[in-house]
Specification:
seven-stranded mixed sheet, five-stranded parallel sheet, 14 helices, alpha/beta, 12 strands, 456 residues, 38% helix
Length: 456
């Protein structure tokens, strides 16, 4: 663990700290609207027990599914944070419900879609436990579509209550968590975290991010999933490349602990003379750390990925030092938050266009791909839900649905990214990535090369 800075604070440092806290809080909360990127949490169901295997069948001829949205309008008003509006998610859910029911329902069953808005300003483990109980016990939902739920207790809570999860958050769920919470946890839009991490480091090496260095800094969320991934995957892989890792673990309980951990890490990295930094654990860490690093006169070149929400840096140039993005390189798997429409024409062909057509039939359009960053994962979730339900012959349970998805998963394609990794035991749909870097000429992020399958 990185030690805290106990030295005296000069007036200018205190002013920078206050400004950074405000900016960091705004960034952290705003990013929740597009699937706040924090690891999915731990290795138990909260009370130490494991999810029971027998889940209840969907009642009668109707399947109730709750879609979670995140309310950040007030935060945006207060902070003046810039981010593309995601439109009216409730109407988007209604459009998806109509499309499903007009096209055979869920294996002949009617979809009853319920929308719940979650206030990110009140986020806490207790708030997410309350939301979980509302969905599972009050709504009696068969499934829930998650966006922006990033506390460690959230996913185990739904699994313990036998509620199927279509996780539409940019959350770092690894295979161990998928297996532990099986058959309840699935990701229709994003990659499995171990595969991502292996590919991330491999791509950085190929792009010579580590060239001439014997040590690299990792800013890492201190959660069970991330501890497991960093310790068992990232650090050993870096060692094979001849690189030691200085890990700055950051407590992600709240904005205060994230700020403190990031500040401590920046001081430690600067003292060690490290000038290459990568992030494992989420976009809140990247935006907050970069802000703090500037105030501590820490200069480094950063690795970047979709988990770090590149669009935040482009939309809010006053939040972090102007040169923060120079030299950024990494991998991207989520175009709505990676690259501008000028770099990847919008709308695209294939499943992205199919999803946008569903919304357009209901009178819903999106000016940019970034504006569809919630709508597209919602669509992925509904399409995956329908794929599984249509393949069930008999009672629809989480177990029977999961078996059908495993059997038919190779036919699925995410509208939010590249490739496919479902079927044959896979729980996360995104199967490929592209090399991504910040380009000086356009001052934007760009993709380079072809799709690359995520490593095993």
């Amino acid at each position: 663990m990185v030690e805290a800075d106990s030295g005296p604070k000069r007036p200018r440092d205190r002013a920078l700290r206050v400004r950074s806290v405000v900016v960091a809080a705004a960034a952290a909360l705003a990013l929740a609207s597009c699937g706040a990127v924090m690891p999915g949490g731990g290795g138990s169901t909260g009370d130490g027990s494991q999810p029971t295997s027998a889940s209840p069948a969907a009642a009668g001829k109707t399947v109730k599914v709750v879609f979670i949205g995140v309310d950040l309008d007030e935060v945006k008003k207060q902070t003046k944070l810039v981010t593309a509006s995601v439109g009216d998610p409730k109407k988007q859910v209604e459009a998806l419900e109509k499309w499903v029911n007009d096209n055979g329902g869920l294996g002949g069953r009617k979809l009853d879609a319920v929308f719940r808005m979650y206030d990110a300003q009140t986020d806490s483990p207790a708030s997410e436990e309350k939301l979980c109980n509302q969905v599972a016990q009050d709504d009696k939902a068969f499934a829930v579509v998650l966006t922006g739920q990033y506390q460690s207790n959230a996913r185990p809570c739904y699994a313990q209550r036998k509620t199927l999860m279509l996780d539409a958050s940019l959350v770092s769920n690894d295979e161990a968590l998928f297996e532990e919470l099986a058959p309840y946890l699935w990701s229709p839009s994003f990659p499995e975290y171990n595969a991502f991490t292996a590919s991330y480091i491999k791509a950085l090496s190929q792009e010579k991010f580590f060239e001439g260095r014997k040590k690299v800094a990792i800013v890492a969320a201190d959660t069970p999933v991330n501890r497991r991934t960093v310790g068992k995957k990232a650090v050993p892989q870096l060692k094979k490349l001849g690189i030691d890792a200085e890990v700055g673990w950051v407590d992600t309980t709240d904005i205060g602990t994230i700020y403190q951990g990031s500040e401590q890490a920046a001081i430690t990295f600067a003292s060690a003379g490290i000038d290459r930094v990568m992030f494992l654990g989420g976009s809140r860490l990247a935006s907050i750390f970069a802000t703090i690093a500037g105030s501590k006169q820490f200069k480094a070149t950063y690795a970047i990925s979709s988990f770090d929400n590149p669009s935040f840096f482009l939309n809010n140039p006053d939040t972090v030092p102007a040169d923060t993005m120079n030299g950024m390189v990494g991998i991207g798997f989520h175009p709505p938050q990676d690259v501008a429409d000028s770099e990847m024409p919008f709308p695209g062909e294939g499943v992205e266009k199919e999803c946008l057509d569903i919304y357009e039939a209901a009178g819903i359009t999106f000016e940019t791909r970034e504006a569809a960053r919630v709508a597209l994962p919602y669509c992925d979730s509904v399409r995956m839900l329908k794929l599984g339900a249509d393949g069930v012959d008999g009672p629809l349970t989480a177990e029977s649905w999961s078996k059908a998805v495993d059997a038919e998963g190779s036919n699925f394609q995410t509208a939010s990214g590249f490739g496919n990794a479902l079927g044959d035991g896979g729980h996360a749909a995104a199967g490929s990535y592209r090399v991504m870097r910040f380009a000086d000429d356009c001052r934007c992020f760009v993709y380079e090369g072809d799709d690359v399958p995520f490593s095993e």
